[in-house]
Amino acid sequence: MRDLRPAGWVIRTNLDRPSLQPDQLYLEEVGAPVWEREHRAAGLRQIGAKTRRYVYERDRHMCRRCGVGAAEAYPGEPDSHARLTLGHVNPHASGSGAHAENLITECARCNELVRNLTGVQMDSAQVWERVKALPRRSKQELLEWMEADGRPVKPIDQAWGMYRQLPAALRDEMRQGLRDLLES
Ligand SMILES: [Zn+2]
User: Fold this and answer.
1) 84 Cα–ligand 1 center, Å
2) Bigger pLDDT: 153 vs 164
3) Which residues lie at CB < 5 A from ion ligand 1?
């Protein structure tokens, strides 16, 4: 199961679905065919739990490519739920290992997209069009992100990202806990 999840398989336990028995699993989404050679996840399966946690934490539990958070909906698709996984910074570099500096947090959708873009470079002119179309204040902000090579995240965003990574039952508990805290 630990090998399947990074490959996009969504397998639920009774932690995320209270209706399941502790010994039951529910296959919600079939991921990449890991038995095929090209999907034998270039070292992804060798990522230890510690590295995995470190990368998610470093990236504030957000897709580094599109910015979506765990279980958040994609823009314009209120019913969608993004799922985070790990990908390689440069998916085409052969032999890039399972070290944190080679890994980034990606949502399953971006991960799939990036893997399918083999050899295709983002068209710089297209990106520039987008950049130019931004209002001046956003341009300024973007430049700051570029210079810092990262997007500043407030503590509230970080707390939100971590909360979204919890199984549903624990999220319910925490929501109630915060409600109680604020009302006391
Ligand atoms: Zn994404």
Assistant:
1) 8
2) 164
3) 63, 65-66, 107, 110
Task: Determine if residue 103 is left, alpha or beta; phi over 0 gives left, psi from -120 to 50 gives alpha, anything else beta.
Answer: beta
CB within 8 Å of 142: residues ≥ 6 apart: 131, 134
Per-residue buried b or exposed e for 79-110, using 16+ beta carbons within 10 Å of the residue's own CB: eeebbbbbbbeebeeeebebeeebbbbbbbbb
30-72, pLDDT tens digit by residue? 777 766 655 555 445 567 888 899 999 999 899 988 888 888 8
- For residue 56, report the distance from its CA to the centre of ligand 1, in Å: 13
Ligand 1 mean position, distance from CA 157 (Å): 17
Half-sphere exposure of 7 (CA within 13 A, CB side): 20
The domain segmentation of the chain, as residue ranges, is 5-120+153-183
